[in-house]
Specification:
231 residues, seven-stranded mixed beta sheet
Length: 231
C-alpha cells in the first residue's frame, strides 16, 4: 500500500499481519524499515515490492527500529540476500546473539540470530540509497530503540517502531508493550519527553495505522500518556 510518494507499507495491519514493515524508494535502491516476524510476513513484503514495481531494485539496507522478534524475524533471511542490516546500541547485540532481548520467549521458539552490519548511535546520519536518515536513540521500550527521521518532499517523517503508535484518533498516541527483559519505565518516560520536542509531519509506527499530518501532536500526546501511565 502506497502511503506517500516513494513510501510503501509492505506488510502490516491491512494485510492481516500485526507488525508493520515499510519500504522507501531511494536512488536506484530500496530501504526497508523492519521486516516482520516470519515467512508469511516476508512473503507479503516480497509480493508488495513486486506489486508496486520495486522488485527490480536492490534492497540496500534493512533499518531495524528495535530488536523484538515481530520486527526482526526475517533479518537473517534478508541479510543472506545481500542487504546491510542496521540497528541501535544494545539491540544490535541482542539480534546478533538471538537472546532474550528479541523477546523470543513471547513466541516460544528460537530466534534466527542475525549479524548487524551497522550499529548506529544517537545523532548518526545513515546514508542509504541516496537518502539521509537521522538516528535518534530513544531507550525504554527496549534498550536500543531508535527512531529514523527522514525528510522527503519537505515532510518530516518519523519511523517510530514501538516507542509511539498512533491512536484511534489521528492526534492521539498509544505506548509500546512493557514485557521486554530490558524494558525501562524511567528511560521510556525520558524518551517520550525528548520526542515531544520534535517536529514531525508523518508518524509511521511499528503497529496500527499511520498519521499523515501534524505528527508532532501524536508525540506530544504520547508524553502526556507517559506522565499518566509511567510515573
Amino acid at each position: 500500500m502506497q502511503i506517500l510518494k516513494d513510501i510503501y507499507l509492505v506488510s502490516g495491519l491491512p494485510y492481516g499481519f500485526h507488525p508493520n514493515a515499510y519500504a522507501v524508494k531511494g536512488r536506484n535502491a530500496v530501504v526497508l524499515i523492519d521486516c516482520g516476524l516470519d515467512e508469511r510476513d516476508l512473503a507479503a513484503i516480497d509480493t508488495n515490492l513486486q506489486y508496486w514495481g520495486l522488485a527490480d531494485l536492490p534492497i540496500s539496507h534493512l533499518l531495524i527500529t528495535h530488536a523484538h522478534f515481530d520486527h526482526t524475524g526475517n533479518a537473517f533471511t534478508l541479510r543472506k540476500r545481500g542487504l546491510l542490516t542496521v540497528a541501535g546500541p544494545g539491540d544490535a547485540e541482542g539480534i546478533a546473539r538471538g537472546d532474550d532481548r528479541t523477546i523470543r520467549y513471547a513466541y516460544g521458539q528460537s530466534f534466527p540470530a542475525c549479524d548487524i552490519d551497522i550499529t548506529v548511535q544517537d545523532g548518526d546520519v545513515l546514508n542509504a540509497a541516496g537518502l539521509a536518515f537521522d538516528v535518534i536513540h530513544v531507550p525504554g521500550h527496549s534498550s536500543g530503540c531508535v527512531l529514523y527521521r527522514l525528510v522527503l518532499d519537505k515532510r518530516v517523517i518519523l519511523f517510530t517502531g514501538d516507542v509511539v503508535h498512533v491512536g484511534e484518533k489521528s492526534d492521539m498516541a498509544r505506548l509500546g508493550w512493557n514485557g521486554a527483559v530490558d524494558y525501562d519505565r524511567a528511560a521510556y518516560l525520558c524518551s517520550l519527553q525528548r520526542m515531544a520536542q520534535l517536529h514531525a509531519d508523518v508518524i509511521l509506527a511499528g503497529h496500527y495505522q499511520p498519521c499523515l499530518q501534524d505528527g508532532y501532536k501524536v508525540l506530544q500526546n504520547a508524553y502526556m500518556r507517559g506522565l499518566m501511565e509511567l510515573r
